[in-house]
Amino acid sequence: MDYKTQIDKSRLPRHIAIIMDGNGRWAKKQGLARMFGHRQGVETVHNITVAATKLGVEYLTLYTFSTENWNRPKEEVDALMTLLVDTIAKETPTLMNNNVRLTMIGDIDRLPEGTRQKFLGCIDQTSHNTGLTMILALSYSARWEITEAVRKAVALAQKGSLREEEVNEQLVSSLMTTDAVPDPDLLIRTSGEYRISNFLLWQLAYSELYFTDCLWPEFTEEEFYKAIVDYQKRERRFGKTSEQIH
pTM of this prediction? Predict the structure, then answer.
C-alpha cells in the first residue's frame, strides 16, 4: 500500500518524536555485533529526516542516547560516541542541503568534549536554516529534565524572582529544555516495546502514541508514512467531547 499518497498535508503533525529502538536486536538477528545495528540505525535516521523534510514536518525529535545508556558497557558507549562524531561530520552537508536546523536537548555536559564540540559546531552551522528542526535528545532523560526545571524554579524563588502564585503549567513548560518547541503531536516507538522509557514525560501529555514491531534499522519511509496516516485517522479531543470538536 502507498501510504504517502494517503497523507493529508494540511493536517500533518507539526512535531513528531521517535524512540529509535531495536538496533542491537536487529544486529543480533543478522549474527552481527551490536555496533552494526547502530550504524544501520544511522542510515534510517538519514532516510526519515529526508522524508520528514519533504513532507513539511516542522519538528522531529529523536531519542538518540538516554541518561541510562551511560550504564552500558564502556566499549559500546565509546563506540557510540565515535559513531556520533563520524555521523555529524558526514551528515552536516545533507542538513544544509535540506535546510534542516539541528539542535540538542539533554545533559550535554556529560558528553566527551570532542563529541560535544562537533555537535555544537553543526548546531551553529545550521542555525540559520528555516526548514525542519531536528532535535537530538542526547544524554537525556525526562526525570533529569523535570528535576532541572525544579532546580531552576527554586533558584528563581530564592532570588525573589518567582512567587508561589506564579507557578503554573506555562511556567513549568518554560523551564523545560523544549520551551521554544510545540509539544509532540505524535510519538513513534519502534521494536515492539510499549513503553515511554523516560522520554519527554511532560511534553507527551496529549501526544498520540504509535507503536510498531519494526526494529529501527527496518523502519522505512513507508513505515513512517503509515504512522502519519494512522495519526490522521484519530480524533484528538484534548479532554473535550466529539461534539465540541466538530
Answer: 0.94
The answer to whether 69 is a known catalytic residue is yes
| Domain 12-141+183-232 coded CATH 3.40.50.150 | no
What are the pLDDT digits (tens) for 157-210? 999 999 999 999 999 999 999 999 999 999 999 999 999 999 999 999 999 999
SS3 state at 85 = helix
Q: Where do the domains of the chain lie? A: 12-141+183-232
- Which of 2, 23, 69, 99 is labelled catalytic? 69
Q: Which value, to the nearest 10 degrees, does the dihedral of the CA atoms of residues 194, 59, 200, 217 take?
A: 40
Rounded to whole angstroms, the Cα distance separating 47 from 200 reads 23
Q: Residue 214 class from Cβ within 10 Å (0-12 exposed, 13-18 middle, 19+ buried)?
A: buried
Is 185 one of the annotated active-site residues of the chain?
no
Task: Given the residues 2, 8, 21, 97, select the one marked as catalytic.
Answer: 21
